[in-house]
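Comment on the following before class.
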Amino acid sequence: MRSRAIALLVAALLPLTALGCSPGDDPDPSASDPAASASQTPTTPEPAESGSPSSPETGLPPATGQALELKGSMSFRLPEGGEWHHTGDGSTTLYAGHPVDDGYFDIDASEIETSNTELDPLAKASLDIRHQQAELTPGRFDPFPTRSPNREVSGRAGWVLESTGKKSTFYEFGTNIDGLTAIITFQYPSSYGAGKEWVESILASIEWK
């Protein structure tokens, strides 16, 4: 299922590579392409899909456990202790998971080359991916994620998607760095009290390449 999710990510973000071309190179992007349509919208995005950058101070120290990295965009650390399982360290997609009460604390991270650097169309493309994932796996999100205000992580502005339900909590941070769109997502049982603390400590440990 994760390989299919990555395929959806690539399919949604690849059209954005054309956004760096001149108008003469692509004079009529398809209206059915959500990413292309978002890039051509002259009006200010609706508040539900765009936010002002912010840097909330959580006071939480960075995680100090094992370091994992994506090939070209970032590295981060896992919280200390416990049995973390991970795959893809040093590649363009990676996964890490830790068993917790009622399930798993899951981390997925990925990167893909894009010429577009604007957060709004990139966030829109990611929301489209989540819609496709929800169709493939009913009940995957509880409830479906919505866009929250942009924030800064380790000095770099990015978009946020999140949702918190009775069973599951989802959190995503995404940004663009030197032509690479990097996304890290967290999903864990809402009953796990340390979940938010883990998310913030991992985000605080991110180092951009």
Q: What stands out?
A: The two ends are 29 Å apart (CA to CA). Strands lie at 67-69, 74-77, 85-87, 93-100, 103-113, 146-153, 156-164, 168-177, 180-189, 207-208. The first helix runs from residue 2 to 13. Helices lie at 2-13, 34-40, 119-136, 195-204.
